[in-house]
Amino acid sequence: MVERQTDTKDKRSVGIFLLKEGEQLIQEMRMLINNSIQSRMSEKDIQNIKRLVE
Q1: Could you tell me the pTM of the whole model?
Q2: I want to staple 1 with a disulfide (CB 3.0 to 4.6 A). Which of 12, 22, 27, 43 is the partner?
Q3: Mapping DSSP to helix (H, G, I), strand (E, B) and coil, where does residue 10 land?
Q4: Is residue 19 helix, strand or coil?
Q5: CA of 19: how far to CAs of 2, 28, 39, in Å?
């Protein structure tokens, strides 16, 4: 799901990169969360939460 890469000049430097498989898994989780929220809350409640977060 993620790949760890070190810099060729500085082995202490580490980068973490999301692989395609990880992107797909995150997208699936977002869809499940979104569906769950929409089935349990009204549109007005969802809009109020969005306003609070912005």
Answers
A1: 0.62
A2: 22
A3: coil
A4: coil
A5: 5, 14, 31
Residue 41 tokens, joined: 């809350």
Contacts for 41 with CB less than 8 Å, ≥ 6 apart: 49
- The C-alpha atoms of residue 5 and residue 13 are separated, in whole angstroms, by 8
Segment (H or E) for 4: strand 2-6
Q: What is the pLDDT of residues 8-46, one digit of tens each?
A: 888 777 888 899 999 999 999 999 999 999 999 999 998
| Whole-angstrom distance, CA of residue 46 vs CA of residue 37 | 8
Amino acid at 28: E
